[in-house]
Amino acid sequence: MKNFFLASAISLSLIAISPSTFAASTNVKVKANVKGSCSFADGNDVIIDMGTLSANSGDQSKNGVTQFWCSNGVNYTITLNNGLHATGTQKKMQSSQYYLPYTLTLTPTTGVGTGPGTLKDILLTATVLGTDINNATVANGYTDTVILTINL
């Protein structure tokens, strides 16, 4: 009978000291930050070719388009600098020592990104006023380079 009580006591103590009694636990926290960004759809320059401009032809405008995306929820602003040959804020194309004033506008200028799966268009419009064409020195290859930037 002693053996029975001893065996019962050992069995009960083994049940009471189960593996869960020796277990420990802790929390595992998984963390991340999602960084906002914007990117042009391709690395190509936007070319707006005004063509051959003739005196007495009035104001001349041409368009160019590029595409971009911004991360979902990112607020962005799109800006242009004044180009390589500006006087103050007046953009100018240059050919040798000659200059031809023009304006360059863009649409849109602000927005909220929806992720890389949704490309957005930027419409750029270059305009040379008829009065500037009338006053321009005849020359080939008037050019300027303006930097288009998407700011977060």
What does this structure look like?
- This protein is an alpha+beta fold and 152 residues long.
- Helices cover 16% and strands 34% of the residues.
- The chain is built from three helices and eight strands.
- The strands form two sheets. It has a five-stranded antiparallel beta sheet.
- Strand 4 and strand 5 form a beta hairpin.
- The model has no long low-confidence stretch (mean pLDDT 91).
Outline the fold blueprint.
Elements (H helix, E strand, L loop, with lengths): L1 H15 L2 H4 L15 E3 L19 E11 L4 E6 L10 E5 L2 E10 L2 E3 L7 E9 L1 H6 L12 E4 L1
What tags apply to this protein structure?
152 residues; alpha+beta; Immunoglobulin-like; 3-stranded antiparallel beta sheet; Spore_coat_U/FanG
Task: Write a brief structural summary.
It contains three helices and eight strands; from the N terminus they run ααβββββββαβ. The protein has helices at residues 2-16, 19-22, 130-135; strands spanning 38-40, 60-70, 75-80, 91-95, 98-107, 110-112, 120-128, 148-151.
